[in-house]
Amino acid sequence: MDKVKELLRVRNTLVRECFAEFLGIYILIIFGCGAVAQVTTSSLTRGEYLSINLAFAFGVTFGVHVSRGVSGAHLNPAVSLAMCLLGRLPWRKLPVYALFQLLGAFVGAATVYAQYRDAIMQYSGGNLTATGPLETASIFATYPAPYLSIFNGFVDQVIGTASLLVCVLALGDSQNSPAPKGLEPVLVGMSVLVIGLAMGSNCGYAINPARDLGPRLFTCVGGWGVEVFSAGRHWWWVPLLGPMVGSLLGTAVYCLLIELHHPAQEGAPEDCQTVKNKYAIELEEGTSKPGGGGAKDGEQGEGGGEREREECTMKWLQSLRNSLKEEADAKSFQERLQWG
């Protein structure tokens, strides 16, 4: 078994990151689009709009949790673009990340279809369309409301994605109010939830080019045909380009209004040498304390001094460990985001 594990183990960092991005967005899609399929095919008897929002939020939460330790859990080309703009992700990785995010979304949509195929066919009468009262293409990709213009839809995607990026950047900013350690996935999911609750009625809050284009490509080859690209007055490019512009806007807004104005850090964790010097003094003083060298008898005095030295050494080591942990915690979320 060990030999098999060693044979299957991928050592290339970029490949590992791509696998993580693939799996993270796959989880997002099977939970999010799975909820849409359940609500749609049950004619609202097995859920409603809120359950779709919750499913996407939890899908993001678990997708981020699964992949963040490996790739930073972007799960979204718009987030990857922001990380490149901030110098936290090499530009050469952007197209590769985006490709695997797209593939993960495509396979996620295929999985949802495999699970709900019979329900989709029964609901639609076997007629897979992107328009009409029994359309089912919107289970997988986003489409505009009848009243929505292309321009207003583009603005919608820019604002929604910019809001997401402001939240994400704030959660990873060690000099602002970073997410508590371990709660990063939950808070990222909450940001998606509130965007869905506040900005979802116009066109379904794609805010993620891969989340929309991957499932749209699947529906194109899975039975719905090219209508998925012509529906909604050729809507398909709006959730592709709008989020990328929103990424630029959200990153600029956060940097210009918050990040660029951080003062020099005060109360930063003591560096290793400071901690060492501080406790070296106590270590020396421990041998000269009245109880340290001359207690009731020679043996007890020597033992007391030794205990003082041991206690002070342990105190120094614990402080050093805490200092290193604080430094690591302050950087960990941003580093994982590339987010580092």
State the main characteristics.
340 residues, mainly alpha, Glycerol uptake facilitator protein, 2 domains, transport, Aquaporin-10-like, glycerol channel activity, membrane
Short description:
Residues 284-311 are annotated as: Disordered. This protein has 340 residues and is an all-alpha fold.
CATH class of the largest domain: Mainly Alpha
Average residue pLDDT: 87
- The CATH homologous superfamily of the largest domain is called Glycerol uptake facilitator protein
Give the radius of gyration.
27 Å
Number of helices: 13
Secondary structural class: mainly alpha
Quaternary state of the chains:
single chain
Q: Helical residue percent?
A: over 70%
Q: Which architecture of the largest domain does the CATH hierarchy give at level 2?
A: Up-down Bundle
Tell me the β content: under 5%
> Which spans have pLDDT < 50 for at least 5 consecutive residues?
287-302
